[in-house]
Amino acid sequence: MSDRPLTVAAIETRGVVVPMARPLATGAGAVTTVPLMLVDLRTGEGVTGRSYIFAFYAALLGALTELTRASARAFRARRLCRSRSKPGCGRRSACPACRAWR
Predict the structure, then answer these.
(1) If we measure between CA atoms, which residue out of 91, 71, 69 comes closest to residue 81?
(2) What is the pTM assigned to this prediction?
(3) Is 85 part of a structural domain of the chain?
């Protein structure tokens, strides 16, 4: 693996409601579906990272999507450090070794 920083090209989101294989019993009732927002972070170097955000209610997916898209505009074209071997890497700030965002 190269230690060269990656550049954020795009952040894509989509909301989905996933049925649970086994309902979760809670004091408020049974939870039969899970609202998730799927997030893909694409880099200019061809690497794609994937994650998800759990929403307690499906009605929150629209707000989460808008919040993530607004945040994505701040990260577009930003370099990301992917090295954990350099001194100072591994924290959530600019990497002191390569000046890329961590």
Answers:
(1) 91
(2) 0.68
(3) no
Q: What one-letter code names the amino acid at 96?
A: P
Backbone angles phi, psi at 49, to 5 degrees: -105, 140
**How high is the mean pLDDT in each 10-residue block of the chain (102 residues)?**
72 91 90 92 88 89 88 73 54 56 49
3-state secondary structure string across 52-72: EEECCCHHHHHHHHHHHHHHH
Owning domain of residue 66: 6-80
Quick check: is 39 in a domain? yes
Give the count of domains, the chain. 1
Q: How far is CA 47 from CA 2, 5, 6, 18, 43, in A?
A: 12, 11, 8, 26, 5
